Amino acid sequence: MKHMNSEVKEERTSNKKRIDLFLVPIVLIAAFLNLFKIWTDEYANAYYTAAVKSMLQSLHNFFYASFDPGGYVTIDKPPVVFWIQTISAKIFGFHGWSVILPQALAGIGSVLLLYVLVKRTFGVWAGRFAALAMALTPIVPAVSRTNNIDSMLVFTLLVATWMLFRAVRTAKFGWVLAAFAMIGVAFNMKMLQAYMVLPAFYVFYVVATKITWKKKISFLTTATVLMLAVSVSWAVVVDSTSADKRPYMGSSQTNSVLELAFGYNGINRLTGNTSVTGSSHKQSAQTEQQTASSETKQNSNSSADSSQSSNQRKSSSSQKMQAPGGGNQNGMFNTGNPGPFRLFQKGLSDQISWLLPFVIFSIVGLFAGVKFKGSYTTKQKESLFWLAWLLPVAVFFSIAGFFHQYYLIMLAPPIAAFAGAGAVALWSMYKQHNGWKSWLLPGGILTTAALQVYIMSPYVSSIGVAPIAGVGALGVILALVLAVRKQRKNSLTNYLGAAAMVVLLAMPAYWAMTPIIYGGNSMLPSAGPDSSSGMGGPPSTATNSKQSGFNGMQPPGSSSGNSSSNNQMQPPSGSSNGGQMPGGSSNNGQMQPPSGSSNSGEMQMPGGSSNNSQMPNSSSSKSSSSKRKSGGMNAEVNKKLLNYLTKNNTGEKYLFATTDSTSAAPYIIKTGEPVMAMGGFSGSDPILTVSKLKAMIKKGEVKYFYLSGMGKGGQSDVITWIKENSKEIPSAKWQSTSSSAQQGPSGNGTLYEITLK
Question: DSSP states of 50-61 as a string?
């Protein structure tokens, strides 16, 4: 801290000749958090891993990002990240870690990029603090340790930011085009989410460049046209291709990439309104929450406490699934209620908001004295860029109807940038006794420590009282001491300032390590002592935390003897009213079992594993050295079923057909054989018709069908026809009698055979 003021003006000549030794441990920390034990995640997010397996098999599957090797349906995202994952798997072999590796490296790269971006203008200490804050933001490593897209998306947007800053410094239009083209590439990673940074790009370029307004408008218009062209390039090619020559566009209702981009992956995320496109998106949201809940470590103790299970069933029957903002603090996927303080609510605050009060004080300090008319310094211009990134994204997450916790990684770069730049600015104001500005540093430390105590308080049963009390006490003491010593200049004051920053980063550092300590969830990643649950909220108040959350599902092929009454959907751990459905429900908010379910009145979980798959807790879910196979879905295969299907295949293209991707993914991963997810990811995409299915059967493309209670939404007529025109295969021929996880596809279902002349 004592060298901060002298290093604000960087010595560029010397910096070019030597490596910043302070950066080395920061990068090593980021590498540890992003890479350590990723090799234990055998399947990662099985939905996306299955796609990589399929994409490895042909250029056709590779280009379209086909979910299955048969090219029947795509995944629900554009292909760029999965192209990179497939290349990684081609180089290193097909493993869980090889599809995770690109995202882990992107997480490390984002730390380095933020260092470079902040250091050049705000000084080397600001760059160091910003890089460290980025590395220790809990949701950053939590996402980067999976094969989800967001870590790569943020890295790409930071590359675009570097290009934009360079365009302003060099006054070269080519870099402007490159920056906006890179946003177009990011669009082909996660569609409209990439455009969340556009306000920052437009505002910064207008304010920072010293050219005429005519040129500004001309350059930005041209760059925007290029961005849009790059954005829709893949979509136009796909949508222009005849539907019978490519896979169906998964999770769309009209087999269109553009509809997917601006509907399910666009406006519907903001409004939470799934009724626009029918039942599919509600089904998809429901499926995501259910499958994520099943991604837990296998607990060796499969015996459930009977009284606890009874209490859970009673509790479950009274829970209702409410629409976003409908009286449940945790919200769907623990995303809280929409409102101005949503980012400070449980479930979101512990993922991203640890330093937000300090950031607010930093923004005040960085913009203090700015005049609306007149020239701006480079620091003020770049501060405006980060503010124009932070505010719109924060507003989106404050009002959005349907998103996941890991999307919050979009807030990590501006928060980390302000933490770094603000630490230097507030320290300088404090040391120089700049009137009221000198109080911003102790004020930021005090309020940030208070928020961190609030964030940790629901987890007292998991982490204990000591760290919560320690952060609170040290934060108050250090803030008060700094306030008292404001007029003194000596080394002790410098050490106190450094100690305060260490205290504020201590608990985010611990939270960032929780996916390593407790295990992660590859489908819905989050950080915290319950990180492996994927629900991202405080622990359940259940007396036996092993039984909290979703009760274990008995898979097909298992005869452990549990009654069907145990196969109930429980509310998310820590939720007072259960998970919420975007757009609400037509049944008074209650989640109903899927039609045709064999267990009347009960909800079965796709991907449900054996009865010993429970929501983890701080005492029972620490990761082991064994491979994790949950992968967000039922990532085990029923070997007896697989042997039966393989033996009786008479040249059919598809090994079998099933309702949704949850059931199909593990078989694709294990065998590389085509498995048809008739209704796409959620099981309700309107892909099949009865006539089309008849034609496929007559051509000998498929004859076996595994049907469970889930995923029927948009294909109930197809399911009905299958049942009415098929021969049921006796369970003894394909179900395992072992209770040791010889699992079949998700849920309790039935295997059918159809042959048409």
Answer: HHHHHHTT-HHH
Q: How many CB atoms lie within 10 A of CB 170?
A: 10
What is the C-alpha to C-alpha distance for residues 83 and 355, in angstroms, rounded to an integer? 35
Per-residue pLDDT tens for 651-703? 999 999 999 999 999 999 999 999 999 999 988 899 999 999 999 999 999 99
Reported confidence tier of residue 243, pLDDT bands at 50, 70, 90 = very high
Annotate 306-364 with three-state secondary structure: HHHHHHHHHHHHHCCCCCCCCCCCCCHHHCCCCCCCHHHCCCCHHHHCCCHHHHHHHHH
Task: List the 750-753 sheet strands across, edge first.
Answer: 676-677, 657-658, 704-707, 750-753, 727-728
Asked whether 277 and 264 are in contact (CB, 8 A), the reply is yes
Cβ atoms of residues 504 and 359 within 8 Å: no
Do the Cβ atoms of 146 and 44 come closer than 8 Å?
Answer: yes
Stated length of the chain? 757
DSSP-assigned letter for residue 748: S
Q: What is the mean pLDDT of residues 548-556?
A: 33
Q: How confident is the model at residue 635 (pLDDT cuts 50, 70, 90)?
A: low
Bridge-based pairing of strands 727-728 and 750-753 is antiparallel
pLDDT of residue 648: 96
Which residue, chain included where needed, has tokens 């340790």?
145
Q: Which helix (H) or strand (E) holds 380?
A: helix 378-399
> Can you tell me the distance from the alpha carbon of 233 to that of 237, in angstroms, rounded to the nearest whole number?
6
Q: Which amino acid type is present at position 213? A: W
DSSP lists the bridge partners of residue 727 as 753
E-strand stretches of 119-223: none
Give the helix/strand (H/E) hosting 662: helix 661-671
Helix axes 80-92, 150-170, angle to 10 degrees: 110
Contact 527, 143 (CB under 8 A): no
pTM higher than 0.70, yes or no?
yes
Nearest to 611 by CA among 292, 307, 294, 290: 294
For the record, the structure tokens of 573 come out as 């751990």
**CB of 180 within 8 A of CB of 160?**
yes
Sign of CA dihedral 384, 387, 391, 392: positive
Closest CA to 673 of 642, 710, 699: 642
Three-class DSSP category at 248:
strand
Would you tell me how many other CB atoms lie within 10 Å of the CB of residue 555? Answer: 30
Q: Which SS3 state, helix, strand or coil, does residue 552 take?
A: coil
Specify the pairing of strand 704-707 against strand 657-658.
parallel
Q: What's the angle, vertex CA 309, arms to CA 306 and CA 314, rounded to 5?
A: 125
Cα separation, 120 vs 479, in Å, equals: 29
The predicted-structure confidence for 20-78, as pLDDT tens digits, reads as follows 999 999 999 999 999 999 999 988 999 999 999 999 999 999 999 999 999 999 999 99
